[in-house]
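Journal club prep, notes for RB
We'll compare a predicted complex against what the paper describes. Inputs for the zinc ion case:
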Amino acid sequence: MPLAELHCHIEGTIAPDMARKLAKRHKVKISHIFGPDGNYQWSTFPEFLKTYDTVSSVVCTPEDYYDIAFDYLTRAAKEGLIYSEMFVSSEHPEDVGLSFDAFLDGVSAALDDVEAKTGLVGRLILTAIRHRGPERAERTARNAQLHPHEKVVGFGLAGDENQFEPKDFVRAYEMASDAGLRRTAHAGEVAGPESIRATLDALHPERLGHGVRLLEDADLVSRVKDGGVTLELCPGSNIAIGIFDSYETHPVKAFLDQGIKVTLSTDDPPFFHTTIGQEYAAVEVAHGLSRRDMMQFTLNSIDAAFCDEKTRKRLRALVETWIRKNI
Ligand code: ADE
Ligand code: ZN
């Protein structure tokens, strides 16, 4: 089954073994982030973000970025992933003294090699980290203006939704738009519908990262639906963070029933003990969805992707051919 994902953080794809390997390579001590089973250990959302930062601190060279992107995408391609948009932050490379160009060269070379080897098409979303504040976000957006790159197609805002206000990031988004980047933003993940409203008002995103608390506000549901805003849903992530108890109680089906455009992604797969194949399978089983329903997630992702139109057409044809042959 062809799968597509729009919401996956590059450092969030690092498997614990890869993190240990990179930590050894750079002589960084990170043993405190692992539990007795060898997996990442964290309990609250802020703790998860801290663990994420620690894992990011072992990615230090263009080769490291190549390795993590190549490792994740080749694994995901085996599950059927045909298109991936990855969130990349220039702030983590900056933290370890790596230039924007050098870091992008590493990631971009991995995307090229993965596409040549598996056919999976990868694109990048330059992402500001909300809790680091607007000035840092503007520096990130400035990178997009100064160093345009064909694979960087969007601008995003991740990090702690409870810090700062969406309006604080208006200038960063304007700079990113000037650089030709499309807009997405995390909202309504750990905060409620008021956060989604403030994000739509200030940043005008075409897509929302998560947006799962949308259903608490009927007016907002209409606004998202009428505005054609697509949700980047990551059910396994929401369950691991404690927003919902299970795939059965996750509102993915309610969104479908309301006619809202939704897609499926992993967010930070090894942190949440999931993969893109598992996300599709778990949603299919929990909500009794048909293969055709499942393919609608992939088609929605392709429709809302920030890639060029030629690539979109090619990916759409690939999925439609699969549907004709298999459903
Ligand atoms: N950075 C990495 N994963 C994230 C998430 N789920 N929410 C906000 N920021 C993130
Ligand atoms: Zn995310």
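Talking point for the session: The longest helix spans residues 100-118.
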